[in-house]
Design a protein that fits this description.
The chain is α/β, with parallel strands linked by helices. Helix content is 43%, strand content 12%. The two termini are 23 Å apart. It has helices spanning 11-17, 44-60, 76-79, 89-95, 114-128, 136-152, 164-171, 187-194; strands at 2-3, 22-27, 34-39, 69-72, 101-104, 185-186.
Length: 195
């Protein structure tokens, strides 16, 4: 997750247009595939909804998750209370998929999150510092376009100068073409639909 309120170019728009304060980010490490969601608050409920949204999409696209690991930091939006005696709802949802594991990074080991931190920096530079937004729907439209460009066209020097979709197809030429197309959402909207 990323708090967007510390970006000077974005902050006035966030306040004036009631745009989201937090970005929830999913980045698949080997290909760089990116999925995003946004919310006004950080919460375990929203992280869990985001995970469910992505997992449902991955399963519908036939992605085998049986050997995968979902890595997060130790934020309460993922683990709940640090004093909890049981797995958080987020962990339960992730690990309900047979073989899929939720792992947290060691406390203070931010280098373990390098891929997602890199994409947070890119989003800040390539979108939030330069774009003007008209309203919440316009915000979501621009992020949908950005995420599509990121997954389907933006070449990554750190990944053989290829985009995520090219790397996915190299590993699995039969990959479902819907895979890179999951649109960003406002998690408040997902919450209203689901509860």
């Amino acid at each position: 997750t990323k708090d967007l309120s510390d970006i000077p170019e974005y902050w006035p728009q966030m306040k004036n247009l009631q745009l989201p304060r937090y970005q929830y980010t999913f980045r698949e490490v080997t290909s760089g595939l990116l999925f995003m969601a946004f919310a006004d608050t950080l919460s375990l409920t929203y992280s869990t909804l985001f995970a469910q949204y992505i997992l449902q999409h991955l399963q519908q696209c036939g992605v085998d998750l049986s050997q995968a690991t979902w890595q997060t930091d130790n934020g309460s939006e993922f683990i709940g209370s640090w004093q909890a005696k049981h797995d958080s709802r987020f962990t339960q949802v992730v690990q309900a998929i047979p073989g899929l594991q939720h792992r947290t990074i060691p406390p203070g080991a931010h280098r373990f999150q390098a891929d997602v931190e890199t994409v947070h920096n890119l989003v800040e530079i390539e979108v939030l510092e330069i774009e003007s937004f008209l309203h919440r729907n316009n915000f979501l439209d621009k992020f949908t376009t950005y995420q599509l460009w990121f997954n389907l066209a933006r070449k990554n020097r750190g990944k053989e100068n290829k985009n995520p979709w090219q790397l996915i197809l190299e590993k699995n030429p039969q990959a479902d073409p819907r895979l890179p197309l999951l649109p960003p959402v406002f998690l408040e909207d997902l919450f209203k639909i689901n509860y």
